[in-house]
From TrEMBL:
It comes from the Bacteria. Belongs to the thiolase-like superfamily. Beta-ketoacyl-ACP synthases family. SMART domains: PKS_KS (SM00825). This is Beta-ketoacyl-ACP synthase. It holds the Pfam family Ketoacyl-synt_C.
Length: 410
């Protein structure tokens, strides 16, 4: 089967540490954390954690209309704004060609907006429909991000919703890549988003997997560290514009990177317990797709949630495939676990780091857990390195594994 090459021509994201790489990288370099104590969660007396990485300064642009906004909850607003900025970065925001069926969307989140879920729950509990209207389901539905992006920009290509928890963003990018690679269409908006909600913290709290360093928010999370005590939830959005290479060259687009490999599989064992062998196999699938040997990869952007089982399984799988010299780090140490957004945000970060030869370290990594794989953990400060290929890995509840490989564009 003839396949096409896929390049990244637009990138954007929204995080608790900024919404442009210059600001985010400056905060990373200064060891500034986006985590804070959530005093507003004190009313949830059975919730143990009080830590999160909220986007406190988020607001919608003044040019968005009331009609556009009425179908969008917070998660959709985050994703649509990231998409708007990614399209602008690609030089496509005002290009009519994206609206003639040539551009599609692959995007996801763990869930829709929880305010709407609460309103439907109120109906079931109290037999009243207070707060429900014609747009409530659109704001709540699992594919609200993908649908709202398509509608907002008038995109009539295929829509691929990816509501797969922590791999929502990376599956969005992977499936968009495959749609272009196999000639279905030349342009895709791909990524993921998540809005912060105490219910998401409770999901992990019930598993005894959240950090309880409530009085020292900047010391947590601690991926790969022997002193870790659990993950911290964050929020944000990340979007990439993926484009068929010849299409991008014909219009003189700026190319940020080439996406050369995608692997995805399932553990098939347990909903919340990660499996080292299938994690490794997802990475191998990405390498096979790219036609690369393991030695070609210069850096792995780890999933690094700061959960015991996750950190150990992930790093042991990485060592088994790449050996003990592989550099690895996790930006979740700065932002918390942004769930549906993390795969897209960390792909964006991976490309920025690769293009600048400056790789961000893992915050709060003081002493590597001896049960983790023997790898080259980036600690204390960013490191200067030059690599042609980088890998971004994400692993989700349900036993879903993803691996993406990006190539530096000369």
């Amino acid at each position: 089967m003839n396949s096409r090459r896929v390049v990244v021509t637009g990138m954007a994201g929204i995080t608790s540490l900024g919404s442009d790489w210059t600001s985010i990288e400056a905060n990373f370099s200064a060891n500034r954390s986006g985590i804070r104590r959530m005093a507003e969660w004190d009313r949830f007396t059975e919730l143990n954690t009080r830590l999160a990485g909220p986007v406190d300064d988020f607001s919608v642009p003044p040019h968005w209309t009331r009609k556009q906004l009425r179908s969008m909850g917070r998660v959709s607003r985050l994703s649509v704004l990231a998409a708007e900025r990614a399209l602008a970065d690609a030089g496509l925001l005002e290009d009519a060609s994206i609206r003639d069926g040539r551009m599609g969307v692959a995007c996801g989140s763990s869930t829709g907006s929880t305010e709407e879920i609460k309103a439907f729950g109120n109906m079931l509990l109290n037999s009243v429909a207070d707060g429900l209207n014609a747009n409530s389901y659109i704001r709540m539905m699992p594919h609200t991000t993908a649908a709202n992006i398509s509608i907002f920009f008038g995109l009539t290509g295929r829509v691929i919703p990816t509501s797969s928890a922590c791999t929502s963003g990376s599956q969005g990018i992977g499936y968009a890549y495959e749609a272009i690679k196999f000639g279905r269409l030349p342009l895709m908006l791909a990524g993921g988003a998540e809005e912060l909600c105490a219910t998401e913290a409770m999901v992990f709290d019930a598993l005894y997997a959240t950090s309880l360093k409530n009085d020292a928010p900047h010391t947590s999370p601690r991926p790969y560290d022997s002193g870790r005590d659990g993950l911290v939830i964050g929020e944000g959005a990340g979007m990439l514009v993926l484009e068929e290479l010849e299409h991008a060259l014909a219009r003189g687009a700026t190319i940020h990177a080439e996406l050369v490999g995608f692997g995805s599989n399932a553990d098939g064992q347990h909903a919340t317990k990660p499996e080292q062998l299938t994690m490794r196999r997802a990475m191998e699938l990405a390498l096979e797709d790219a036609g690369l040997a393991p030695a070609a990869i210069g850096y792995v952007n780890g999933h690094g949630t700061a959960t015991e089982q996750g950190d150990i399984a992930e790093t042991q799988a990485t060592q088994a495939l790449f050996g003990s010299g592989m550099p690895i780090s996790s930006q979740k140490s700065f932002l918390g676990h942004t769930l549906g957004a993390c795969g897209a945000l960390e792909s964006w970060f991976s490309i920025e780091m690769m293009n600048r030869d400056r790789y961000i370290h893992t915050l709060n990594l003081d002493e590597v857990d001896l049960r983790c794989g023997d790898l080259d953990y980036l600690r204390d400060a960013p490191r200067t390195m030059q690599h042609e290929y980088v890998m971004n890995n994400n692993f989700a509840f349900g036993g879903i594994n993803t691996s993406l490989i990006f190539r530096r564009w000369a």
